[in-house]
Amino acid sequence: MPPSKDRICYFYDQDVGTSYYGNNHPMKPHRLAMTHHLVLSYDLHRKMEVYRPRRSYPVEMTQYHAEDYVEFLSRITPDTASEHMQSMQRFNLGEDCPIFDGLFDFCKLYTGGSIDGAVRLNHGMSDIAINWSGGLHHAKKAEASGFCYINDLVLAILELLKHHARVVYIDIDIHHGDGVEEAFYMTDRVMCVSFHKYGDLFFPGTGGLSDIGKNQGKYYSVNVPLRDGIHDDGFQDIFQTVMSKVMETYRPGAIVLQCGADSLAADRLGCFNLSLDGHADCVKFMKKFGVPLLMTGGGGYTKSNVSRCWTNETAVLLDRKLPKDIPEHDFYYEYYADQDYKLKVEPTNYIENLNNKTYMHEVKKEVLENLRAIEHAPGVAMHEVPPDSMIPEFDEDDLNYDERYGGQFGLDKIVDRDDEYYDGDKDQDH
Questions:
Q1: How many angstroms from the chain centroid is the CA of residue 336?
Q2: Across all residues in the chain, what is the average pLDDT?
Q3: Residue 160 φ then ψ, to 5°
Q4: Which helix (H) or strand (E) holds 296?
Q5: How far is the C-alpha of 105 from the C-alpha of 91, rounded, in Å?
Q6: Which of 45, 138, 163, 279 is catalytic?
Q7: Hey, how many other C-beta atoms are within 10 angstroms of the C-beta on 397?
Q8: Is residue 428 part of a domain?
Q9: What are phi and psi of 272, to 5 degrees?
Q10: Which residues pair with 49 in a beta bridge?
Q11: By Cβ atoms counted within 10 A, which residue in 37, 310, 366, 373 is the most buried?
Q12: CA-wise closest residue to 158 among 134, 183, 185
């Protein structure tokens, strides 16, 4: 397979992987450290521009979120939580969305990665931006929800809208992307397309076929409600059918793809039955359109499978086929014995596929009928473009030798070219 010609930037900070929601909480940011180490073990970082995301500022968060909510998140700590129970109830902080040490710094990191990725796409500095720490799609304007505090996706989309008339948001997390949909429910400048489990009081309980947007946004919310046990073939059929029509009709200038890994088989909180390759096929399909693409993580609660998933999808974006044998690395023996140290997630036999042909036909029919109501992509009136969020700039002359060549700044700039044979200091030409 020929190497990818896309310029890909990848955001990661080791501090995001050390965040800890608490004992017995299903959200484990440690999965991000596992993903990063697996990316490194496959040498995928050599073919990307790797950046440490800057920490976003509270003023950037308030481009969407309420000021009092952001201010509260910035100062609340586990030690002071008991003194602010009324505010915690008001902002839906508690069991699902606990207060933990370093909470706001965690929010600043994952949000900064998504915003910076959007800025780089806007300026043509990258074709694809990857921030696996992002994708926290449930957070509302003034409320935490579903393990999510700040909605990095909404903030990144707002950034993209400064340069693009239309943005399509795609969500393949098993949970409905309700926070993003709510933010853009009454606009035609963002089309939100969510493929998710619906019914049986499954969280968050939204995302039915009839939820299509309101006012100017009518028909620009596209919900594809699915049932337990859907497998690769069924998921790909409806995904490719719907997204082909969306791209044909809406013609977005940028794509944001939330790749929640809880739609994989055997997820701790999930009930779908997708394989590793079935999940990645969504990424492969959207990449083919050649539209600027922001990739984020999301849900995923079986850590070893999450890291397999996002590493594999990093490789898909790079047009690389990875060996199934996972290379030995720091987390190798502790986490990957469950699948014999293989890069695979296989469908299970114990979950019934409740998505029969009749049901899938009816869902597809109604979704496509709604899309036909959009005769052409909406026009956008001319207006003054707000200033971009800042990409940190460095004057290399102001850096000392160690910082320039041995520090993080130097490492961030290293990308191996595919047309060069040289590979490392120990390589010998013959």
A1: 23
A2: 90
A3: -65, -35
A4: strand 293-296
A5: 18
A6: 138
A7: 6
A8: no
A9: -90, 180
A10: 9
A11: 310
A12: 183
Interior/surface letters 373-393, b for 16+ CB within 10 angstroms, e for the rest: ebeebbeeeeeeeeeebeeee
Contacts of 402 by beta carbon, 8 Å cutoff, 6+ apart = none
Domains contained in the chain, number: 1
Q: What are phi and psi of 263, to 5 degrees?
A: -85, -5
CATH code where residue 154 lies:
3.40.800.20
- Interacting residues of 309 by C-beta distance below 8 A, sequence separation 6+: 259, 261, 264, 276, 279, 280, 300, 345
Tokens at 144, concatenated: 């935490």
pTM of structure: 0.90
More confident residue, 428 or 52: 52
> What CA–CA distance (Å, rounded) separates 13 from 211?
37
Mean pLDDT of 369-375: 89
- 275 inside domain: yes
Who contacts 381 (Cβ-Cβ below 8 Å, separation ≥6)? none
Residue 194's H or E segment, with its range, is: strand 190-197
User: Is residue 383 in a domain?
Assistant: no
DSSP 8-state symbol, 266: T
Size of the chain in residues: 430
Measure Cα distances from 290 to 127, 225, 252 in Å: 8, 27, 11
Read out DSSP for 69-128?
HHHHHHH--TTTGGGGHHHHHHTT-SSSS---TTHHHHHHHHHHHHHHHHHHHHTTS-SE
Burial (CB < 10 A; 0-12, 13-18, 19+), residue 140, is: buried
138 is catalytic: yes
Model confidence over 277-324: pLDDT tens digits?
Answer: 999 999 999 999 999 999 999 999 999 999 999 999 999 999 999 999
In a domain, 306, yes or no: yes
Residue 293, token pair as written in the block: 């693409």
Residues 6+ apart with CB under 8 A from 87: 72, 76
Beta-carbon contacts of residue 256 (< 8 Å; ≥ 6 apart): 153, 156, 157, 160, 167, 168, 169, 170, 293, 294, 296
Residue 370 structure tokens: 């709604």
C-alpha span between 415 and 404 (Å, rounded): 15
Secondary structure of residue 276 in the 3-state scheme: helix
Using an 8 Å Cβ cutoff, are 11 and 52 in contact?
A: yes
Q: How many DSSP H helices and E strands does the chain contain?
A: 14, 8
